[in-house]
Specification:
- This protein is of the alpha+beta class.
- The protein folds into 2 domains: 118 residues, N-terminal domain of MutM-like DNA repair proteins, CATH 3.20.190; 93 residues, Helicase, Ruva Protein, domain 3 (Orthogonal Bundle).
- It has 7 helices and 10 strands.
- Helix 1 packs across helix 7, helix 4 packs across helix 7 and helix 6 packs across helix 7.
- The protein is elongated and about 55 Å long.
- It binds a DNA duplex through helix 6.
DNA sequence: ATTGAGACCTGTCGGC
DNA sequence: TGCCGACAGGTCTCAA
């Protein structure tokens, strides 16, 4: 499910019911997801107030009144459900964690594949946490632009698509939006990543185009996810459209699928060079 | 240091 | 209908 836009939309959904509320109970139904839950997870949450729910890349970052921070990742199949206490909230398969909030909200984490992740971090240690410390720029922040992208791709011998999936290059892109951004920018996913930068790390015009495409595709996806929008599941430009006609202007190409790093890439060989 | 392959899990879908 | 393989929006670890 979740790349940056989906995580952002989850954040927007759970923030209003968690912020300013206390954890009145925390039920953990297994001892690990991708990694074990931290020691005394439940005890360290109960009674704490949620100050703010933020996001870094694909991680949800929940600031607590205890000076600790709850870090959560949805993996491939994680999701949150929000119910109201007393609404006959039944637990279903793969409900691994239940947060009961003093607001009466019940926030349930469900994750069939269990690639998700939760941890608690002390105040000072947040940016030093292993999962956060190496992350590249947030793509919707001011630090991200063609210069940053070119710098990160400088000297990289791997393909452009794989570089975009590298969270140290830009934080939050996943398999779908990497393909989408490359199509918008008209760049081949097979290109060597270093070709968008000069030897000294300065951007080629393609780096600016790609950075702009990334910003645009993510912004639009977040907008599309917002619950006030009707047209939820508008499909993608190239992702999962193998053999279909390219949708760019009057490009006559057809969408191809290739495997890169074990994952599917979709692109138009005609207009993406 | 960088890069690619494999591992972690369960569910779903298409083909036979 | 049932079985089987391929595949799924992520990230870590390991070996070359």
């Amino acid at each position: 499910m979740p790349e940056l836009p989906e995580v952002e939309s989850v954040r927007r959904r759970i923030a209003p019911v968690m912020e300013d509320a206390r954890f009145t109970d925390v039920i953990v139904r297994r001892r690990n997801l991708r990694a074990p839950f931290p020691k005394r997870f439940r005890e360290r949450l109960i009674g704490r107030t949620v100050l703010e729910v933020t996001r870094r890349a694909k991680y949800l970052v929940v600031l607590l009144s205890s000076d600790e921070t709850l870090l959560m990742h949805l993996g491939m199949s994680g999701s949150f459900r929000v119910d109201q206490e007393g609404d006959g909230t039944l637990s279903v398969a793969h409900d691994h964690v239940v947060f009961q909030m003093s607001s009466g909200a019940v926030v349930t984490f469900n994750d069939p594949r269990r690639f998700g992740f939760m941890d608690l971090v002390g105040a000072g240690g947040l940016s030093a946490h292993p999962v956060l410390s190496a992350l590249g720029p947030e793509p919707l922040s001011a630090e991200f632009d063609g210069f940053a992208l070119a710098r990160a791709c400088k000297g990289k011998r791997t393909s452009l698509k794989l570089a975009l999936l590298d969270q140290r290059v830009v934080a939050g892109l996943g398999n779908i939006y990497a393909s989408e951004a490359l199509h918008i920018a008209g760049l081949s996913p097979l290109r060597r990543a270093s070709t968008i930068a000069t030897r000294s790390g300065l951007p080629h015009p393609s780096a600016h185009r790609l950075a702009a495409a990334i910003t645009a595709v993510l912004t639009e996806a977040i907008e599309r996810q917002s619950p006030t929008r009707q047209y939820r599941s508008a499909r993608f430009r190239v992702y999962d459209r193998e053999s279909e006609r390219c949708r760019r202007g009057r490009c006559e190409g057809s969408i191809r699928r290739r495997t890169q790093g074990g994952r599917s890439t979709f692109f138009c060989p005609r207009c993406q060079r």
